[in-house]
Amino acid sequence: MPLLQNLRVVSARRYEHLYPGRSVCWKAAAFTHVAKAFFHGEDPDGQRPREIVSIGDSNDERLAVRAAAAPLDATAKAIKLVDAPSLDTVACQLVAVTAALPFLVAAKTSVDVDVAAVLAYVGAAHRDGGAADDSIQRVWNDAAWGLLTAIRFQDANPGDSTPVQDAPGEDLSLREEEAQAARRLVLNSQA
């Protein structure tokens, strides 16, 4: 595919040796490295709006994109996908995220949306025993609208953004410690 030949792949693992076992830090370093290079090359005078977008299945990416965006005076935009999704869920996410992408890009403020929460909400609304194919299609359509609604709400209410929800049983103090380390990493890279 010719389009894919023009994409540069950057692995956060290249920063693993600096922060063993702290993937939030690796990801923040990767976001920072790529964003700084892009912002400098595309807009050296800093006149255009700066945004860092993350679409992935890890809460670490959600924390890292915010840690990287703040010191770069950029707007963080994150869409958290479902962990270990079924094939139907992958397809549903693809439909929903594709529909939401123009709204994500147009949002003037930070966005943080969890697709799993949207799917849980709309999925529960469609447990009516209808035909499976029809029900799946309705969930996909409603998931797309749910994602759009979440993005629009956060853009209209910037002080009311959805917080990152940690995985059940996860040690929140360790997550915050990693987020702090990621922020320090980004600030040190500014010097």
Overall radius of gyration: 18 Å
Strand order of the largest sheet: 1-2-3
Task: Give a count of the beta strands, DSSP E runs of length 2 or more.
Answer: 3
User: Termini distance?
Assistant: 39 Å
Number of helices, counting only DSSP H or I runs of 4 residues or more: 7
- Helix % is 55-70%
Oligomer: single chain
What count of domains describes the coordinates?
A: 1
What is the mean predicted local confidence, pLDDT? Answer: 75
Provide the succession of SSEs: HHEHEHEHHH
Residue stretches low in confidence (pLDDT < 50, at least 5 long) are: 161-175
Estimated structural class: mainly alpha
Biggest sheet architecture: 3 strands, parallel
Overall 3D form: globular
Give the strand content: 5-15%
Characterize the structure shown:
This protein has one domain. The chain is 58% helix and 8% strand. The protein has 7 helices and 3 strands. The N and C termini lie far apart (39 Å).
